[in-house]
Every structure is written in C-alpha cells, then in structure tokens.
Amino acid sequence: MTQPxxxxxxxxxxxxxxxxxESVLIVEDHPLFCDALTIIxxxxxxxxxxxxxxxxxxxxxxxxxxxxxxxxxxxxxxxDADGMDGLMQIRKAxxxxxxxxxxxxxxxxxxxxxxxxxxxxxxPKHSKRQVFQDALAAIARGEPYLPEGxxxxxxxxxxxAQACNKLGTLTPQQTRxxxxxxxxxMNKQIAHECQITESTVKAHVTVIMRKLGVQSRTQAVLAAQxxxxxxxxxx
Length: 235
Hints:
- The protein is α/β, with parallel strands linked by helices and 235 residues long.
- It is 48% helix and 12% strand.
- The strands form two sheets. Strands 2-1-3-6-7 form a five-stranded parallel sheet, sandwiched between helices.
- The radius of gyration is 18 Å and the shape is globular.
C-alpha cells in the first residue's frame, strides 16, 4: 500500500495545514476519468460536495463566485493552460486551498516542480483507488503526499546567491514580466498589462530564460520564487 510522505512536514504553507476535507473541485477534461474520480470521492472517500470543470478558465470562474473547496484535484494537461501555469493561477486565486495534482505526467522533475510551486500532493493517474484515499487522508492531516518511492531532493538546483545574481541581470521590464508570469499570467495578458505587443513579450521571455539559464517559464518562476523577488521588481 502506498504510504503518504512526511517529507517537508515542517514550515508548511497555509494550503498544507490540517483541514476537514468536505468539498472538492476536480479540474479534468477527460469525462470518463472525471466521473470515476467523482465516484471514488463520494462513495469511498465520503466527500459530500464534489464539483467538476474541464478548463482553468472555468475553474477560476467557479472560484470567483462560489466558496473555495477544501481540495482541488488538478490535471496538468488541460486545453487552455500548461498545467504549471494553471497551478500558478489557481494558487493566486485561492492561496489557502490544497491543490492535489492528478496527472499522467509523473517524471521526478515534474513532481518536484509541482511541489515547489505549492501543490499539496501528487498522484499519478494510473494509481489505485487506495492511493487517492491515502492522499486525501494526508492532506487532511496537513501532510504533503508524494508517489511511493519518490523523495524530494534536499539540495535546491541553484543556491540563493546564484539565483540573486542571475535575477540581477534582468532589466526592469524583464523583471516586471517575470513577476507577471509568476502570477500565472499568459503572454496576451502580460502584453495588455505592460502595453506592449505579444511578440515583444515572447521576445522578453526568451531573453529572461536565457539569462536565468532555464528551459521553461516554470523553471524561471521557480528561480524567482527562490529569492525575495518582490524586492527586485522595485529596483
């Protein structure tokens, strides 16, 4: 039986504090899997309120007009957002909600990135029913949940000093764009916010990733989160 991980139990964010799990929102675009997960949560997990939606846009609309759920089950492959971008947007909308990633993507780097960006746990889609129950139980105790056999590395990919030095090479405009990316904004939204073209935003993002020595927007956000990034934005 898969056991919940106790790794990282100290200094947990509000989203990882002990809680009663009575309401769940599933963000998943595959109807059959969504229906199966709903049945597991209601009948086996005893969850009284299970809502479902199939896009990040619809998820954010639900969160804006209805009480936040205790746990959000989030797929990383959705029609309107890269999963990590979706995770960032949901974290911004409901910082206290526990977000459990349920995905067919389960490489160590993907799991590590999701947890570093504030996920409360990670469950591969192919997992057995008991694993979902164990994950919910761990979240209820305020503990992170990781797949069996996965161990979060103790040492970060880059030191605080290295991250500061790299972030210090960004121009004020690039720093602002990275801050907006960290808020979960897409290129079109950033272009509107900064009053520049979307192609200019894309060019800035390319330079930002090159300066930070990363390969994706998500890695750039992690680099920004490793330091007090808000202070850099005002320089």
